Amino acid sequence: MDQLQALLTDVLREGIGAKTAAIAIVIIGLNVHFGYTGLLNMGQAGFMLLGGYGFAISVAHDIPFVVAILIGFALATVFAMIIGFSALTLRGDYLAIVTIAAAEVIKILGNSERFKSLTGGSLGFPSKKYDPAFLNLSFFPHYKTWQILSFNYADVSTSAGFRIFGWLVVLALAVGLVLAGMKLASGTRKILVMVGLGVVLLLAALFMFPLTELSTGDSKVGDHVASSTGWWVVFVGWVLAAICTGIVYLLTRSPWGRMLKGIREDEDAIRSLGKNVFAVKLQALIIGGCFGALGGMVYALSLGAIKADDQARPMTFLCYTALLIGGAATLLGPIIGPVLYFFGQWTIEGIVRFYVPDSFLSDQQAEPTAYVVMGTVLMLLVIFRPQGIFGDKRELRFHV
Amino acid sequence: MSEATARADALASVERTPGSAKPDPILRVDKIVRQFGGITAVDVEHLEVQRGIITALIGPNGAGKTTFFNLMTGFDQPTSAGKGGAAWNFNGKQLTRTGAAAIARTGMVRTFQLTKALSRMTVLENMMLGASNQPGERLALSLFPPAWRKREAEVHAKALDLLARFKLDTKKDDYAGSLSGGQRKLLEMARALMSDPTMIMLDEPMAGVNPALTQSLLGHIQSLRDDGMTVLFVEHDMHVVRHISEWVVVMAEGRIVAEGPSDTVMSDPAVIDAYLGAHHETDLAELDYDEIESEVAEEEQEREELG
């Protein structure tokens, strides 16, 4: 019972942690590319890496914090323009080839011995060089332990029966959220219902699984399950994710966003209506890339080091998986998708670690097992529910 | 009716020869050649399209009509560009090196043979994309709804108006992908009208449309002309062509072979040749083999010279 409680608490910590928030921001960018504009960007990890490097290396060289962020954005913009001018006039498949290759170039440069003094090479760029500047900005008290929620199940009853009941309530709310996402017709009402349900679910989950972390500070532990930099980075990460979602909301509901969807459906039709398709695609590529870079910065802050190998092709595919779980071309899909993805991954890993005998699957095999299961989930999803959890069912009937 | 006679009078003095000069041309085309490898798809020496009338572009399959449309609207580039050859001019503007989007903005809007309805967008969204001068389509302004809300309301009203005219208003919230083929043709035409074009180019507007809908489409095209628009359209159905067009241009093997009013051009020997072949009236039993052989040899000679 206590072991399961510990496991689920870890799952919740990772599921709503800063790393998830970072991935969510990256996926918001990918959604602008793939979901709204139909650009098959297979190199989102490259944007992430550029954002992280640009920001972290600048901060480490005593460049002001805001300027460092702008440098990250500038690198992503230049990267997007290089890709855009070379591949955006070609058909979609070529963009996929160019982006995957370009992201690979960034990764190789990051790993290269030649730039080791700058990027730290394959050992990574350690967070102690850039974290302090970020932690100094915190208006949370430093190095204090906060439990969220401080009013929790322990104040009511610690009996097994009450806890199991509470867990079932949390599970029911989670299932309700997913079902509501699948059943409701898209629109403002759906968004409000989802956000409301999400908040209730979060509170219920935190009531049953209170999380304890430093308010601000570096509590990175070797074991990846327990890695986190305190509530400050979690807070910043999700606030940024919310702001990015708001920006995408405004963009996609504007006439500009309508053009994006039109380009996704048929470029030539949009061209015949007198719109400059190339310029709009380039703008979309840059905006999505900058979201990717911002996500890369938060990702760097949530980890012990920026390693190029962490942000290579598997990262891009993880982003696509999470985006498709949530639903491409939806507003909340990029937020719920990675949360569900990490819940799933950590639950499977925890189960393999604690409940599957080592003779069958050892602890080292826990992570690969989780990837196998999540990969299968992606396949099943694409076959049986290609629009994801939040996607509009009607859109599916006219797949292009 | 007086307008119709005025249009007929304006064309009465025009010569019935390929590339003849019109009294008030809106589109003027010179020396457009488009080759795909060794095949010359389009080779137009000179063409003028009269303003304010319906001109039909006809010709057998593979005559180069759609390629010609693509060239005019910037979706394809002529092979003769830059060699001092290709030049075309719409409403006084030189379009020789203009992109498709910029050409559409000058007021020459086209539709496609295979309709390009934006399937996963609603009919209304499709329509609203057709509007021009929407400041909200600029990225910097899109984040500030007050900057574009007024224009959006105008566009919305206009879209509803046009949808009502094309009897699609009940479908406005449906996805365009759920429309029938004929309704998509209507939608595409209505969408093209959102920007108030001066000339509309319709690529086979009647293909795949049932006869009842054809009648209403024809009515729409005629009303466009009555509103002062110039219409150029590609069509196979001769009844349609004869019914609504004032002038017919006939293409065959990439060239313009005949021009004239719809009632007389069909009897032009060049047109009959193009559609039915030069020997369509010859009885097979009376064929003179030697003559045919010499003709074939001549044609082969010609082909070798060209190749």
Automatic annotation (TrEMBL), chain A:
It is a multi-pass membrane protein. The chain crosses the membrane at residues 21-43, 63-85, 160-179, 191-211, 231-251, 284-306, 312-332, 368-384. The keyword Membrane applies. The keyword Cell membrane applies. Its main location: membrane. Keywords: Cell membrane, Membrane, Transmembrane, Transmembrane helix. It is found in: Cell membrane. Pfam families: BPD_transp_2. InterPro entries: ABC_transp_permease (IPR001851), LivM-like (IPR043428). It comes from the Bacteria. PANTHER family: HIGH-AFFINITY BRANCHED-CHAIN AMINO ACID TRANSPORT PROTEIN BRAE, HIGH-AFFINITY BRANCHED-CHAIN AMINO ACID TRANSPORT SYSTEM PERMEASE. This is Branched-chain amino acid ABC transporter permease. It comes from Nocardioides panacisoli.
UniProtKB/TrEMBL annotation, chain B:
GO terms for molecular function: ATP binding. SUPFAM superfamilies: P-loop containing nucleoside triphosphate hydrolases. It comes from the Bacteria. Residues 1-22 are annotated as: Disordered. Pfam families: ABC_tran, BCA_ABC_TP_C. InterPro entries: ABC_AA/LPS_Transport, ABC_transporter-like_ATP-bd, ABC_transporter-like_CS, BCA_ABC_TP_C, P-loop_NTPase. Keywords: ATP-binding, Nucleotide-binding, Transport. The keyword ATP-binding applies. Residues 27-278 form the ABC transporter domain. This is ABC transporter ATP-binding protein. It comes from Nocardioides panacisoli.
